[in-house]
Design goal:
With 134 residues, the chain is mainly alpha-helical. 79% of the residues lie in helices and 0% in strands. 18% of the residues are buried.
Length: 134
Amino acid sequence: LPLALFSVPIPHVLGQGIGFLADLNVPLAMIIIGSNMACSKLTDAVRDLRAITASAARLLLVPLALFAALYFVPIPSIIKAAILISTCSPVAASCTLMASRCGVNTSLADKCVTLSTLLSIVTMPLVQFVVRNA
């Protein structure tokens, strides 16, 4: 962080290595989510009221409440859309990783990741449709 804040030059080889590690961020998250989804039972996630509630809050309630709040803020609509896209995204795979590290219920975290990832296929376009037509 100090290197970035103070624009300290780093050797090209080291910078390239850091860049390669940064480029792995999204693919590794997709691999983790895919393996969690492959190992979890969708029927269990659909039947779990806590996972449904968490997914509905994450994918619908929070983005729509934020949209209502941002409606009155005088910023460009593209910035509002960018903020809303990030709030209506599915639960991150780090949820399961943190639950595992803390020794708590990883099953519920897996269900939330699986359910919210699948439901976001419908809810993300829906939220964006509401934003564009408001």
